[in-house]
Amino acid sequence: MTKVRMKKINTLMFLAIISAQVYADEISSKIIDDAALKKAGYITTRYTRYNGTVCDQYEGDLKAVKNYQSIKAIHPITAGEPVYIRFTIIKEAYKTQDLALRRLAQLTRPFKFKTGSWYSKTCSMKEGFHIGSDVYFVATDAGMFRDHIPGFIVHLKQILKETGQY
Fold first, then answer.
1. Over 67-101, what HEC string results?
2. Are 138 and 87 a contacting pair, CB within 8 Å?
3. Cβ 94 vs Cβ 67: under 8 Å
4. How many C-beta neighbours within 10 Å does residue 64 have?
5. Domain boundary assignment for the chain
6. Residue 164 pLDDT > 50, yes or no?
7. Do residues 88 and 48 lie in contact, with contact meaning Cβ atoms separated by under 8 Å?
8. Helix (H) or strand (E) run with residue 63 in it
């Protein structure tokens, strides 16, 4: 092989490694095991970064390690054209329980957006709880699934208890 060809190959390998690392930063580990999730009637769709909304932004010095798991219901909730409930489970790990409680307070506070605005609707489409220094919240981007969040929170807590995380 020529030196030019080897240089091209090395450059391509380097770029592939860098690209893989950037992509890996967007991927999260599972929060809920697939078998346990399936028992609750859901499947994992991906582990990609949850972009959140203005409602989810940190205030102050809160820093967390985040995991994301997007899920959808196994069975549709409508007859005819199938519609599947979908949520994103977010787990934020903090250094102390006090920081977790501060974050949970941020996530659950009422927002002062104009009634009927996009933010007033989407900010209320999540609910959360904490276990020690971890904050879990369930979010959706579809208003028709908002009323299903409390029921899923019950399933999520049960799964966490069964798997020893609660």
1. EEEEEEECCCCCCCCCCCCEEEEEEEECCCHHHHH
2. yes
3. no
4. 18
5. 28-162
6. yes
7. no
8. none
**Residue the block writes with tokens 């203005």:** 54
Task: Tally the residues of the chain.
Answer: 166
104 token code pair: 């949970």
98-155: per-residue pLDDT in tens?
Answer: 999 998 888 877 666 555 555 555 566 788 999 999 999 898 878 788 889 999 999 9
pLDDT digits (tens, 9 = 90+) for 49-93: 555 555 656 566 667 778 888 899 999 988 788 899 999 898 988
Secondary structure of residue 59 in the 3-state scheme:
coil
Dig out the tokens for 89 from the structure: 């489970």
What does the DSSP 8-state code read for residue 48? B
Least Cα distance to 22 among 34, 14, 30, 31 occurs for: 14
Q: Which two tokens stand for residue 13?
A: 């390998």
